[in-house]
Amino acid sequence: MNAITVPTETLAPHGETNAYVVDTVLIDPAGRTAELDRAVGGVEHVVLTHTHPDHVGGVAHYADACDATVWARQGREERFERATGVAPDRTFRGGTTVGPLTVIETPGHAPDHVAFATDREIVAGDLAVADGSVVVAAGEGDLRAYLTSLRRLYARNPAVLHPGHGPAIENPRRTIRRLIDHRLHREERVLDAVRSGARTLPSVTDAAYDKDISAVREFAEKTVAAHLEKLAVEGDVTWDGERARST
């Protein structure tokens, strides 16, 4: 299974999103390219791991060009149509089969996020990356769900993960463990910041990072807000969207 890289307006990595063709299924056509045009000759289905803008730009074109069945996450049909301009023909949920693929529920990075599994490999979308970490931003993201989704894939123990950005992940369990540990470490920093007296989102963010984040400040603050939301649900802090306090 090989990624077909599509130039997109995304920060990570290198302004490209990976599309995949698996037998008769086209996954995440982020835009139209000559390479993708050559790869879709036998495509009968178009699916997305999620409907963020850097994954959807080619849906309308390839659905029409391939006369393909367009699928959306059940219960998220309106979100899908707003993002793609295409009304889905069918819907899926966890356990649904689309061609040779089985849908796995993996919310967290986005509320409609799913992965697609063959016997031993998984197209993971923005659940995992080989290097660095995945943005889980307040509003769209849910860190409790994200960590559960990572653990779900860890339990499946796939041979390879194929991410939405960057190279294939050849040691999935090691990468998943790294991503979980990274999130839990950041959570500890956020909780320590609040317990030490940081109250506002900017002040908690400053305390939670020990590196220069000026280039990604917006994403860092949204990530910290997602951590505060998780900690509030779990009863470790109170957070009203403006001020945090330790409980």
TrEMBL record:
Domain annotation Metallo-beta-lactamase: ranges: 16-165
Domain of life, source organism: Archaea
SUPFAM superfamilies, A to Z: Metallo-hydrolase/oxidoreductase
Pfam (any one): Lactamase_B
InterPro entries to which the protein is assigned, alphabetical: Metallo-B-lactamas, RibonucZ/Hydroxyglut_hydro, Sec-metab_biosynth-thioest, WH-like_DNA-bd_sf
PANTHER family with a match to the protein in the record: ENDORIBONUCLEASE LACTB2
Full protein name: Glyoxylase, beta-lactamase superfamily II
Organism name: Haladaptatus paucihalophilus DX253
